Amino acid sequence: MQTAQLSNGVTIPVLGFGTYQIDNQDVPESLQTALDAGYRHFDCAHIYGNEAEVGAALKKADVDRKDLFITSKVWNADQGYDKTLAAFDQTLKDLQLDYLDLYLIHWPNEKDFDLTLETWHALETLYDQKKVRAIGVSNFSKDQLQQLFDVAKVKPMVNQIERHPYKVQADLGQFDQDNDIVNEGYSPIGHGHMILEDETITKIAKAHEKTPAQVVLRWQVDTGFVVFPKSSKAARVRENFDIFDFELTADEIKAINALDQDKHLNYD
């Protein structure tokens, strides 16, 4: 497994397993399939509604805690200093953990960004208390990040954003890199919105004897993004993990970058 290094020296596996929209009753089987395939990085969030089930599945698994990388996120309704600390405690309880590897602000608060800044100060407190190894944000723009930089004692180490071949995020991605922020990409294959049938993608896949999904995930990794695809199908879970035995050429990466349409497939 390849890893990326956060600004504080913590390493993060570049490929993880997403837990969004996994039905509670399916969590045990899905997580065990992912663990068996080799995944050790799991991306969670309180709003997903399945952290208790994820925690139970991880507790049951025969994997040392130190070998896992667990992320969660504070939801908008829990923003604010005290509410964030309480939400974090609930997430730890649900996940049955003593600490998190990464805690993120799920979204910037559109109506009251000062509340988001309070939330960040709560994350800094959790980081100082060593209850979390790294802190970051999700869905933040350059302007929002700059506002955060102006008041932060600890700069965010991660920005998790929508990213796929139809929304390459070149400008924001570069801004993050320039500020020692590791990019994470959600919806890494775009929910299959024609991306996996794109002629450019399928041609590259054929050349490498790989699937279109594997090519897109390899592109994500080769361009410096941490990603965590999700699938309920065991064969697809294993397939998504099998991306470390080939590399894309510079021309292939350029061709995929050229597919950019700045197209949001999720909420903007």
Structure description:
- The chain is an alpha/beta fold and 268 residues long.
- The protein has a single domain (12-191, 224-233), classed as TIM Barrel (Alpha-Beta Barrel).
- 40% of the residues lie in helices and 14% in strands.
- It has helices spanning 27-37, 51-60, 81-95, 113-128, 142-149, 170-178, 199-208, 212-222, 234-241, 250-257, and strands spanning 3-5, 11-13, 17-18, 41-43, 69-74, 102-105, 135-138, 158-162, 182-186, 225-227.
- The strands form two sheets. The protein has an eight-stranded parallel β-sheet with strand order 3-4-5-6-7-8-9-10. A two-stranded antiparallel sheet has the order 1-2.
- α5 links the parallel β7 (135-138) and β8 (158-162).
- It is globular.
- GO terms for molecular function: oxidoreductase activity, acting on the CH-OH group of donors, NAD or NADP as acceptor.
- The record marks 73 as: Lowers pKa of active site Tyr.
- This is Aldo/keto reductase.
- Belongs to the aldo/keto reductase family.
Q: Features of this protein?
A:
two-stranded antiparallel ribbon; AKR; 8-stranded parallel beta sheet; 10 helices; 10 strands; 268 residues; TIM Barrel; alpha/beta
Topology:
Blueprint: E1 3-5, E2 11-13, E3 17-18, H1 27-37, E4 41-43, H2 51-60, E5 69-74, H3 81-95, E6 102-105, H4 113-128, E7 135-138, H5 142-149, E8 158-162, H6 170-178, E9 182-186, H7 199-208, H8 212-222, E10 225-227, H9 234-241, H10 250-257
Parallel strand pairs: 3-4, 4-5, 5-6, 6-7, 7-8, 8-9, 9-10
Antiparallel strand pairs: 1-2
Helix pairs in contact: 1-2, 1-9, 2-3, 3-4, 7-8
